[in-house]
Amino acid sequence: MSILRSRIVGIGSYLPDHIMTNEELAKNINTTDAWIVERTGIRERRIAAPSELTSDLATAAAKQALISAKLTEKDIELIILATSTPDNTFPSTATRVQAKLGMTKGVAFDLQAVCSGFIFALSVADNFIKSGQIKTALVIGAESFSRILDWNDRSTCVLFGDGAGAVILKAEYGSGNIQDNGILSTNIHSDGRYYNLLRVDGGPSSTQTVGYIRMEGRRVFRYATINLVKVAYEILKINNLTIADLDWIIPHQANKRIIEETARKLRIPLDKMIMTIDRYANTSAASVPITFTEAINDGRIKIGQLILLEAMGGGFTWGATLIRL
Ligand code: UT7
Asked: What is the tens place of the pLDDT at every residue in 56-102?
């Protein structure tokens, strides 16, 4: 049987130039490099310049992805931008990216699922492609979390950074089995009972302010490992695969200890979990595509390999995508 699949044909990322080290943070708040490295694995993060907006980070990553796909903006029919730090409350930042890329056709919209945003956006774009509605999609995760950090709250401000990552999906016919190249399966979830555990304490309809990140870190940590392990097993089972079939896992980069704990529970060697958290910290919806791009560009991930992308974030939201490159 011949069925439509979303093939990954381009990848790209963008990280702002400015590096903020743990030592710099320790000059202003009561923390140490040793605490941050031991409890999170983070050594430094990138911070967007005052003039750099989420749309700029997203556009830079998208341009890289277009180059790597050998396509132009004219080929793109759909942009989905996963972000929780839009340039403005409205219009969507995706429409700004559309204009910055020089696109005058197609459709662009934002998707908000916090740190799971890129996985959710991939799932939506994949369904557009599988239904035959569009042929080429640009999926971006871009964030400027530095703008919503309370720099006096040491329990959150040390954890996040800015950046963007993007992929281009193209419709291709496959045989419908797990040897096909492209997105094989997506699996997304949410549970709003946990709304308050990880949130921003402002918003247009509640406080008419932008607000700052607030998190009950220990509880989020616990649910993160539970959900990430569960969703990995779920998606493998749906596809009649086991952990041993996976070449790589690209987890959301929230905390090195969450990634280690997930690897231990899944009984997968830690060196199959790709990490960039030491250099970029948690870039929310951008962390998975940034890490994916890095591992493809440095030659670790190769064509034909089986990769599991997974993330968990505020809402709670969580999900996984199974891809054969
Ligand atoms: O991306 C979305 C998903 N996000 C996550 O998954 C994040 C999940 N949570 C975490 O990664 C961890 O819970 C944190 C990194 C946020 C915190 O690590 P922890 O090991 O859970 O620490 P804790 O919150 O239990 O705090 C332990 C101690 C506390 O001091 P006391 O009460 O024991 O005296 C904190 O006040 O560490 C203190 N602390 C710090 N000390 C130095 C908290 N932040 C800092 C800090 N520097 N930056």
From this structure: 999 999 999 999 999 999 999 999 999 999 999 999 999 999 999 99
267 lines ligand 1 (CB under 6 A): no
User: pLDDT tens digits, residue range 138-151?
Assistant: 999 999 999 999 99
Please report the domains of the chain, with CATH numbers, ordered by start residue: 3-174 (3.40.47.10), 182-324 (3.40.47.10)
* Catalytic residue numbers, as ranges: 115, 252, 282
The beta strand positions in 85-222, using DSSP E, are 107-111, 136-144, 162-174, 182-190, 198-200, 213-215
Residues 83/142, Cβ–Cβ less than 8 Å: yes
54 within 8 A of 83, measured Cβ to Cβ:
yes
pLDDT digits (tens, 9 = 90+) for 94-141: 999 999 999 999 999 999 999 999 999 999 999 999 999 999 999 999
Q: Per the structure block, which two tokens stand in for 231?
A: 């969703």
pLDDT at 1 over 80: no
Question: Is the CB of residue 223 below 6 angstroms from any atom belonging to ligand 1?
Answer: no
CA 167 and chain centroid, separation: 11
DSSP state of 50: T
Residue 314 reports pLDDT greater than 80: yes
